[in-house]
Amino acid sequence: MRVAIAGAGAVGRSIAGELLENGHEVLLVDKAPTAISVERVPLAEWLLADACEITSLDEAALQRCNVVIAATGDDKVNLVVSLLAKTEYGVPRVVARVNNPKNEWLFNESWGVDVAVSTPRLMSALVEEAVSVGDLVRLLRFSHGDANLVELTLPPESALAGTQVGDVAWPEDTSLVTIIRGTRVLTPSQEETLEAGDELLFVAAQAREEQLEDLLSVRRES
């Protein structure tokens, strides 16, 4: 898989290193000469260019990329790169970094963004996930379909504790994708029984999040 990363700062280089270790082809693009540090990621291709310029993206052969990652520290740049990648080059998957949470609402399919990753939001979510039981935590937003990756730890008092996955009337536009139980990662089968303390990961439409939280947090009647 060929991946182009706009922004060769610490974030971009870190992403490039991970992708290269997984056997992917990576191109790093940055307009700042000081950011071109070939020795730090020697297996990557490097391009000194402005990723907001069509001529630069032509040189980068963006049309050959399977994924473009807009990872600069400037939200305006990331939006422009995302829009050009999707509309001008038809890149199948565009991932964009959100630096300021106030701008998160802009990072959607109208700007060519398939997945928006907000570092501040993600860090906040991980803190919430560590301390909250019974509360829904939004981990990641997918632009297409207005869906989110959300997590909820099943509280001991939930009526669903001891219930098989196949017997639960899940809300529409909601899919249970993983159960984390202690050190185990379980693929939820219809026969899998939910246990108190399970970390449940869902892909769910935003409009269904409140309904999902209510379902999982229902207390047993005394």
Automatic annotation (TrEMBL):
GO cellular component: plasma membrane
Domain RCK C-terminal: 137-218
Coiled coil: none
Pfam families xrefs: TrkA_C, TrkA_N
Keywords of this entry: Ion transport, NAD, Potassium, Potassium transport, Transport
Positions of the RCK N-terminal domain: 1-117
PROSITE patterns: RCK_C, RCK_N
UniProt GO molecular function: potassium ion transmembrane transporter activity
Domain of life of the native organism: Bacteria
Protein name per Swiss-Prot or TrEMBL: Trk system potassium uptake protein TrkA
UniProt lineage: Bacteria, Bacillati, Actinomycetota, Actinomycetes, Kitasatosporales
